[in-house]
Amino acid sequence: MGGISIWCMHFIGNRAIDLANHERDLQVAYSSGFTAVSFFVPIVVLMAAFIAIGTNDHISWWRITIGSILCGAAICGMHYLGNSSIKNYRCIYRPAFIVGAAIIAVFASIIALSLFFVFRGVWAHSWWKRSLSALILAGAVSGMHWCAVVGTRYRLVNIQKNNEPSRNATVIVVICLSLGACLILAGSAIFRARKMKKSALRAQQITLGTAIFDKHGRILVDPDGLMPSVAITDSFLEKNSREGFSNTHPVFHWLFQASRNWSGISTLLDGMKHHLLQLPHSGGEKSGIQLINEHGEMIKDYDAIFRELFCVAALKLSEQLGEHITSMGVLWDDVLSTGAYPVRATPRLRQPRTPISDSESTTKEEDQAGVDAAEKGFPGFQTEYGRGSLMLLVRQVHTGRDADRLTSAGFRFAELHQVSHLIQASMQIQSSDFEKTLQALATHDNLATGGSYSLGPIKPRLRICASEYLEDAPGF
Questions:
Q1: Are 259 and 162 part of one and the same domain?
Q2: Are residues 282 and 417 in the same domain?
Q3: What is the DSSP secondary-structure string of 217-230?
Q4: Residue 70 in contact with residue 45, Cβ under 8 Å?
Q5: What are the tens digits of pLDDT across the range 260-319?
Q6: What are phi and psi of 395, to 5 degrees?
Q7: pTM (global) more than 0.70
Q8: pLDDT tens, 127-162?
Q9: Which strand (E) or helix (H) includes residue 110?
Q10: Are residues 185 and 219 in the same domain?
Q11: Could you list the residue range(s) of the whole structural domain that residue 371 is in?
């Protein structure tokens, strides 16, 4: 985008230069060869500049300086190479203005890129800060261009008869490139907005996230400062008003143990995915499993299906990170409440009646709550509002090779105080001090596989094995 903007600004700026009292045949005309070459020069040089600055999370001023010099060289080089494409004039340059133009380009680039990468390094890249950096960088391009133009004299070499079509063609190309760049930027903005909206939606769901820490206590996040996560299901189906999904629930106990035996679970994942595909899906969609039948009752083997959904979600997370499922870490012994506002329906199921239970539960019978369309497949539920839940797989990265592999997948390690508020806000995590929670996870004593684990309020149970799952799971 930067190369396109420099190239377009140059030729639009040159279009504003009027020579020989508006004589059409004496206006600047361009050769196609040098014009095409001048387009690729800023793209290649700017790519090298941003690689020099942006490949390391650590802010290095000498890297920023070298990158800014390359950026200034791209601006100046494109300008003078673009002027070489003028075929009916020979440009004569005054050295003082060449030096002045280079100084403007380099120093403005230093200021703009310093602001941008310093803001990025501390995760303070709000839109107005990015706009400020872009404005300064645009000033570098424009200021350098007009400083160089003032120091340029045009000596006529030959008269180009009817050169207006070539001039108009250049403008048309500039307009097309500018519109294309704007569309790409708009698409990127829309994609990021959808990503943030999706993250907010997960706050109303049962979500599995991963908290991966390096040896310095930094947490792994994506380029937007968000924790990698996937939705397990839209909601946990409650059998009654007293039941809720927490770390005291028997299903959570199973998940807690399963995360400490991924090697055994990994052999069952194909069977789990196959079984989930065989379940009824709402509207024929593979993403929405119908967990309630047409009578408003929980489908058979719901607990086992929820376990499968958890394991498959962990597999999706591992694929996002480019890791094997056995390296995903262990489940933290608590469940975080998410959802800043009550916007999600929490389903409670209709209990099968007997002649006795009908008379005893007339005044205690619970209203049937709504379920998201992806999980119910039919209308007719009343709604009761509730919140989502977040479970975290915790892992420590002890080697530089493992850390490099994760960063090469498009993620970054960030200081907790820089991104904790971003994670909490995006996932709407209900915690009075989420940064302190992350610090506790980063120094967790029980991240290694094997041995004993601190279960908090959970009573110790036997380690899960593959045979235990096979006994409980349907279809195996």
A1: no
A2: yes
A3: S-EEE-TTS---EE
A4: yes
A5: 999 999 999 999 999 888 887 765 444 567 677 666 667 788 888 999 999 999 999 999
A6: -150, 145
A7: no
A8: 777 788 888 888 888 999 999 999 999 888 888 777
A9: helix 95-121
A10: no
A11: 203-472
